[in-house]
Amino acid sequence: MQQTAISTNGAADSAFMPMGAAEMNRASAASPAVWLAGDPEDLKPWMSRGAAGIVTNTVVLNDMVKKYGQMTDVIQRYLDITDKKVAVEIDGHSTQELLDVGEVFTKMSDQVILKIPCTVNALGAFAELKKAGVETFCTTVFTVNQAVAVAQAGVDHVLPFCEPYRDVSGDPTALVRDLRDIFADWAQRPYITAALVRSKDTAEAALRDGADGIIVFWPIFEEMLQAKFTDEWNTTFLNEWNEMYDAGLLEGVPYSRH
Q1: Tens digit of pLDDT for each residue in 179-191?
Q2: pTM of structure
């Protein structure tokens, strides 16, 4: 598998993806996309059911290393269950430290995306990673100012945090709408990927408001498929299918009652 590295001096080296590769990946991605978070063992059956990829965060990763061991081993577990993108959240005290930490994970696989919190140090990292063709997420985005700054630096996905606003009786997806309008005329606009989405209601609001994608834990993804009328009609149609089966009219069809 192709490996992607980050030079510790901030310059591109021969192991980098070619310039423009991240943009080509983005252009071919389905939108809106649903990214999943959680334990790799829980995510395994969902990766073949339409998920765009996996997104980690530091809180989950801290739980996972306590369960599975070293961080690199945890990330390998995610890579082993899918051929889709895996966003690895990293942190550091300087731009160079972010690049050095990120290099550990981009060397593991070209599936790896780097997810970095919104800081001044991150701006320099996004600029260097853009040159290298390494796809990036910017997390902890709460304002238009922050989103524009990281977008100008070259981030590929801006991640507006949603649910904290609901916690204080605010509009959880207002920032999604604002960014949709602000970035509408940008030739190379970032994806608006709604983060910290903890309910199917917030997920639907983000999608309605124009998010290019959402990040949810797999139980929320499962809840997104549920609706009262869907259950009722599915029961109606299954009963019709069973009637045909009971009448012996599904000969040659590999179906049985459950």
Answers
A1: 999 999 998 899 9
A2: 0.85
